[in-house]
UniProtKB/TrEMBL annotation:
<dbReference type="GO" id="GO:0004190">
    <property type="term" value="F:aspartic-type endopeptidase activity"/>
</dbReference>
<feature type="disulfide bond">
    <location>
        <begin position="129"/>
        <end position="134"/>
    </location>
</feature>
<dbReference type="InterPro" id="IPR033121">
    <property type="entry name" value="PEPTIDASE_A1"/>
</dbReference>
<protein>
    <recommendedName>
        <fullName>Peptidase A1 domain-containing protein</fullName>
    </recommendedName>
</protein>
<dbReference type="InterPro" id="IPR001461">
    <property type="entry name" value="Aspartic_peptidase_A1"/>
</dbReference>
<keyword id="KW-0645">Protease</keyword>
<keyword id="KW-1015">Disulfide bond</keyword>
<dbReference type="GO" id="GO:0006508">
    <property type="term" value="P:proteolysis"/>
</dbReference>
<feature type="signal peptide">
    <location>
        <begin position="1"/>
        <end position="20"/>
    </location>
</feature>
<feature type="active site">
    <location>
        <position position="116"/>
    </location>
</feature>
<feature type="domain" description="Peptidase A1">
    <location>
        <begin position="100"/>
        <end position="421"/>
    </location>
</feature>
<feature type="disulfide bond">
    <location>
        <begin position="290"/>
        <end position="294"/>
    </location>
</feature>
<keyword id="KW-0378">Hydrolase</keyword>
<feature type="active site">
    <location>
        <position position="299"/>
    </location>
</feature>
<dbReference type="Pfam" id="PF00026">
    <property type="entry name" value="Asp"/>
</dbReference>
<dbReference type="InterPro" id="IPR001969">
    <property type="entry name" value="Aspartic_peptidase_AS"/>
</dbReference>
<keyword id="KW-0064">Aspartyl protease</keyword>
Length: 425
């Protein structure tokens, strides 16, 4: 991995809290909408990359956790005697540069969570966790309807580690109620990547093949229990920081948030919400990014656009962003061509202006593009990051919230398609 990822600080938009509830249900349509909010935070690229690329192991634990055994930095879940560990790879792209949160009730408590199409598990900070990162958030306490399942998760990465236990409780989203939703309670977390964030948990909305222990993700339980008229959900992301205009809608999409038609594209790998792009063009020109097509992941848990390292470095060279923003009007148009439909991003869509927040983004000598710059007033940065997703899902590009703000996105499990339509701002 290039040293850029070990030194770069990227300004991202992380989740802020909003006390709120569903908008009024649309009668007879079974469509429910949650308002989302965004605020600005800073996270190091190294921490995020380490967590994203980690291999995660989990095992069945029969003995309930004794809270008295949990100490800062010292607790490791105990294996049942003669119980064998099970190994697997569980990719959690939802922790990378996440942006938007909304309300959800678990047991008797309301939390602000990230609704993330890039993961499939349901994580929540537990009252059992005594670490600083946990105690800065609302901590989940099991209700009388909770059930002990005895599964445990262990995550180790370069800048810390996380231990969790998977149990179940009742979950409510407005009028929707799921009786036995599996929840990964975070019981210990070490590493600053989890501290000073504005969310209490993660609700994964990817395919169940990504979920631990073959548990059903929250949306799959909605499907199985026939909670919605249409088994789809959608995201509208406002371009106004700190606004309350962003929303996730279960059971359909909000036509008032659209400025044109929706085009649908088939999912090619039911793990991520992954589709295939014909090409990625720069000012309408084929630069060789997709000689045989490109895998594209629609990921609401990622702020930036990511691509394979070599391709992303080439893209940064082609854009050649001046750090004083002086060539903003001369920067090229980027086009993601998917099934013959062109989705354009103008410079104003993929440039982030760095303001007086004290943030510094050091340059790396190996990177010739000038998109990574010192974060002072009137400075510009490209909203891109290199990320090599391993096979079999990778190599792939991620369309994060930079793209999904311009285009309202629909995730349809009835037809296994992803839809994009120009959002109305």
């Amino acid at each position: 991995m290039n040293q850029l990822l070990f030194s770069l600080l990227i300004v991202i938009t992380l989740c802020g809290q909003q006390q709120g509830s569903f908008l009024q249900e649309k009668q007879n349509n079974k469509i429910f909408t949650i308002k989302l909010r965004e605020t600005q935070k800073i996270v190091t690229a190294k921490e995020m990359y380490d967590f994203l690329s980690t291999k995660q192991t989990y095992f069945r634990q029969q003995i309930p956790i004794d809270i008295s055994e949990i100490e800062f930095g010292g607790y490791v879940p105990k294996l049942q005697q003669n119980e064998q560990k099970k190994g697997t790879s569980l990719k959690l792209h939802n922790f990378k540069n996440t942006q938007f949160t909304g309300p959800i009730t678990v047991g008797d408590q309301e939390f602000q969570v990230i609704f993330d199409t890039g993961s499939a598990n349901f994580w929540i900070d537990s009252v059992k966790c005594k670490n600083e990162g946990c105690q800065q958030h609302i901590q989940y306490k099991p209700s009388l309807r909770a059930k002990h399942l005895g599964y445990a998760l262990n995550v180790q990465f370069g800048t810390g580690d996380l231990n969790g236990e998977v149990n179940s409780d009742v979950v409510k989203l407005g009028e929707i109620e799921i009786e036995d939703q599996n929840i990964a309670e975070i019981i210990e977390e070490n590493g600053s990547v989890f501290q000073n964030t504005g969310f209490d948990g993660i609700v994964g909305l990817a395919y169940p093949s990504m979920a631990a222990y073959n548990f059903s993700p929250l949306f799959d339980n909605m499907i199985n229990e026939k909670k919605l008229k249409s088994n789809q959900f959608s995201f509208y992301m406002s371009n106004q920081v700190n606004s309350y205009e962003s929303q996730i809608t279960f059971g359909g999409y909000d036509v008032t948030k659209l400025d044109g038609p929706i085009n649908y594209h088939p999912v090619i790998d039911q793990y991520y919400w992954m589709i295939k792009a014909d090409n990625i063009l720069v000012n309408g020109k084929d630069e060789g990014f997709c000689p045989k097509g490109c895998k594209i992941v629609a990921d609401t848990g990622t702020s930036l656009i990511t691509g394979p390292f070599e391709d992303l470095m080439k893209l940064l060279d082609l854009t050649n962003i001046n750090d004083d923003c002086s060539n903003l009007n001369q920067l090229p148009k980027l086009t993601f061509r998917i099934d013959g439909v062109d989705y354009d991003l103008d410079s104003k869509d993929y440039i982030m202006e760095m303001r007086d927040d004290g943030t510094e983004i050091p340059l790396n000598n190996d990177v010739s593009a000038s998109a990574f710059i010192q974060g002072t007033s009137s400075q510009c940065i490209g909203a891109f990051m290199p990320l090599d997703i391993p096979e079999p899902q990778g190599p792939a590009w991620i369309l994060g919230d930079i793209f999904l703000t311009k285009y309202l996105s629909v995730y349809d499990r009835d037809t296994n398609m992803v839809g994009f339509g120009k959002a109305k701002h």
